[in-house]
Amino acid sequence: MDKFEQAFQNKLDNEEKIEPKDWMPEKYRKTLIRQISQHAHSEIVGMLPEGNWITRAPSMRRKIGLLAKVQDEAGHGLYLYSAAETLGIDRAELFDQLHSGIAKYSSIFNYPTISWSDIGAIGWLVDGAAIMNQVMLTRASYGPYARAMVRICKEESFHQRQGYEMMVSLANGTEEQKEMAQDSLNRWWWPSLMMFGPSNAESTHSAQSMAWKIKRKSNDDLRQQFVDVTVPQAEYLGLKIPDDKLKWNEERGHYDFGEINWDEFWEVVKGNGPCNKERLETRVKAHENGAWVREAAMAYSEKLNTAVNHK
Ligand code: BYC
After folding, report:
1. pLDDT digits (tens, 9 = 90+) for 267-292
2. 89 — alpha (psi -120 to 50), left (phi > 0) or beta?
3. What own/partner pairs with CB < 8 Å and gap ≥ 24 does 247-255 have?
């Protein structure tokens, strides 16, 4: 180990953060760019399924809540792209990777939002799963990523609460509203469990990422933690989780649950989910429609620079 590697390892061992100008192994940098950019893309694409419902929210109060949530996701994307840029990659390159279909983003956003109660289920389950995963990332070894996560987690907690509160209203509403809530749970449960990624045995990056203290918990441990906290919440709602194998295991002190359909997961990851094509097309179109804003901002900043240089 040379002195640079030793200094890097000492920092990890002492729980000190690695900062942008510190020496770091090239593979550590690449892993972080991969994970942080996938995470940023997920936040941005994640706006689409919910954005669909802003104009159809059933009341002003619900509309304000949903608007605020979707705007928060845009903010999360921006903090994360900024964190990725500190590792020496340009934001335009990250956008190119997303828009050309090379980059991954979370599988969950390739499922359709077909009813208003899906918005409640997303807040409750999808944001609930996101927080479970992201709380450990506030302790990630890379400083800019860990710090971005602190604020993101605070906002995600509010998102989870707003989603659950919607589910409480629906579950205590009319028969039809209860059915809507149950139907959303049926469709979002398994995809939410898939958000945590492949099982530990199939996860290619986990061992190294945990050694580098980027990830602090394994995919399966986080998935189990999510199931354990969510089952009582479903019981409180009077809704049934769509898994016949779900059962409290006294010995393990955890819920046992059924097998995830991994074929479906990998198909969605490969681009063959119900909405992959639509999401990418919408994203590319939004980017193209925003070209004039970027051009105007650049022209303004150039004009400002010229003015400053002439002073
Ligand atoms: N979808 O070795 P593994 C949110 C890929 S929430 C698609 O275990 P890793 C939000 C993985 O990238 C969602 N692909 O990987 C909530 C890898 O492929 P590559 C975003 C997935 O990185 C509400 C391969 O499978 N959260 O933002 O150690 C509203 C092997 O996996 C998925 C984050 O991104 C998946 N579900 O662990 C709006 C959190 N799972 O790269 C927005 C940060 C795995 O080799 N990310 N893959 O081609 C992480 O914590 C980790 O990256 C993961 C995966 C736990 C997701």
Report:
1. 999 999 999 999 999 999 999 999 99
2. beta
3. 254/224, 254/227, 254/228, 255/224, 255/227, 255/228, 255/231
| Percent residues over pLDDT 90 in the chain | 95
Given a contact cutoff of 8 angstroms between Cβ atoms, the answer to whether 171 and 181 are in contact is yes
Is residue 21's pLDDT more than 80? yes
> Which atom belonging to ligand 1 lies closest to the Cα atom of 196?
55
Which residue has a Cα nearest atom 3 of ligand 1?
Answer: 203
Nearest partner of 214 among 225, 205, 222, 203, judged by Cα: 205
User: In this structure, what token pair is assigned to residue 138?
Assistant: 């506030």
C-alpha–C-alpha distance, residues 80 and 145, integer Å: 7
Task: Give the confidence band of 224 by pLDDT, cuts at 50, 70, 90.
Answer: very high
Residue 224 and residue 23 in contact, taking contact as beta carbons nearer than 8 Å: no
Would you place residue 303 in the very low, low, confident or very high pLDDT band (cuts 50, 70, 90)?
confident
The conformation of residue 295, written as its DSSP 8-state character, comes to H
Contact of 199 with 220, CB cutoff 8 Å? yes
Computed over every residue of the chain, the mean pLDDT equals 96
Pocket of ligand 1, beta carbon within 6 A: 34-35, 38-39, 42-43, 46, 73, 104, 106-107, 126-127, 130, 133, 194-198, 203-206, 209, 219, 269
- Tally of CB atoms within 10 A around 119: 27
- CA dist 219 and 197 (Å) reads 6
Q: How far apart are CA 213 and CA 211, in angstroms?
A: 5
Q: Determine the Cα–Cα distance for residues 49 and 47; give it in Å rounded to an integer.
A: 6
pLDDT digit string, tens, across residues 30-86: 999 999 999 999 999 999 999 999 999 999 999 999 999 999 999 999 999 999 999
Q: Which residue has the tokens 């097998």?
A: 259
